[in-house]
Amino acid sequence: MELDELKSIWKNNPDFQAKAESEIALMLKGTSQSIVHKLKRSVWFELIFTAIAGIGLLVYALTLPSGALKWTSISILVLFVVYSFYYIKKLVLLKRFNPAIENVRANLEILINNLTGYLKFYKRSYTILYPVYFVLGLLFAAIERGTDEFIEILSHPKTILYLIFVAGVFFFFSTWFTNWYLKKLYGNHLTKLKGLLNDLDV
Amino acid sequence: MAIEEEKKFINLINEHQGLIHKISMMYEHDPDARNDLFQEIVLQLWKSFPSFRGEAKITTWMYRIALNTAISGFRKSTRHIKTEDLQEVHLNISEGAGDDREEDFQKLQWAIRQLSEIERAIIMLALEEVPYEEIAETIGITQNNVRVRMNRIREKLRTLMIPEHGT
């Protein structure tokens, strides 16, 4: 089948059901389903959530007497501040993203980089920071109880085994849940984008 | 000023809506999904409209955004994922008062939808008489690669559209 033959079939296409001007005008007020728009929405949600949780935690921390709980709250607050900077940086990057100026390949590469970075960040924060906070919480509790009592409790093999078991279960489920959630959220789309980029290189 | 800009944009879409319809039709079979994609392309064009300075042809700019939206930017809702076969195409033709021309067009549409997303973009641009140089720029591959791919695509379409293979 020659290209000219295909072109002649293509040109003979039946008329499309044209959209009215009012319908097009209405479309401009709709919500985008694009992946970049969804990413922006997610980052905005995280930023607002972090800000609200941060303010709440700050108010709570101010009411606490000096001790383990207060220091744990303050360390979480520091982390929230760092996260906020990351979210703002991400929003600036996403705002700069303009599919108009890129060709299909460049557009795919930028999207893959954006999504990979986004997913990596979440994976790290959930799978590394949660166990870190688990250990940190234990440490603050130990300080609160006093070093001697803490060492005394830790010297029991039963306690050590119990802590290892809880940490293991916690780490396993947080990792499993994070992987499942991220794959469901953007992972499948990322795999599709990578496949498309590979298709361009074949 | 903003109202003027919106009017100008709506006129532009009105004038070139065939292009958006064709891309939506090539990337989505389901009418609802096709409509969603049409709307998403219009939204993306509208967002990029202020940055369009008229350096490129309006259709080149539109193809680029529309194809990027259809290929990588649009995340389909799972409710739209549905398989399609040639029998269904034949059924649609016989239900409507279609003639040979429409049947050929429907078959071509179906055959194009069996290609990969990148191949669909290349054949669509070629069928729209876009020069190979511009196709290469829009997709981000070499002109030589466009030629090689076009040969492969023609071969695939030939196989798909011959009745013995399709039915």
Describe the structure in your own words.
The complex is a heterodimer of chains A (about 200) and B (about 170). Chain A has about 200 residues and is mainly alpha-helical. Chain A folds into two domains: about 60 residues; about 100 residues. Chain A is elongated and about 90 Å long. Chain B has two domains: about 80 residues, Orthogonal Bundle (Rna Polymerase Sigma Factor, Chain: A), CATH 1.10.1740.10; about 80 residues, Orthogonal Bundle (Arc Repressor Mutant, subunit A), CATH 1.10.10. The radius of gyration of chain B is 17 Å and the shape is globular. Chains A and B meet through helix 1, helix 2, helix 3, helix 5 and helix 8 of A and helix 1, helix 2, helix 3, helix 5 and helix 6 of B.
Q: Concise description?
A:
The complex is a heterodimer of chains A (202) and B (167). Chain A has 202 residues and is mainly α.
CATH architecture of the largest domain in chain B: Orthogonal Bundle
Q: How many H/I helices of chain B?
A: 9
Shape of chain A: elongated
Low-pLDDT stretches of chain A:
none
Radius of gyration of chain A over all CA atoms, rounded: 26 Å
Mean pLDDT across all amino acids of chain B: 83
CATH topology of the largest domain in chain B: Rna Polymerase Sigma Factor, Chain: A
What is the number of beta strands of chain A? 0
Key words describing this protein structure:
heterodimer; A: 202 residues; mainly alpha; 2 domains; B: 167 residues; Rna Polymerase Sigma Factor, Chain: A
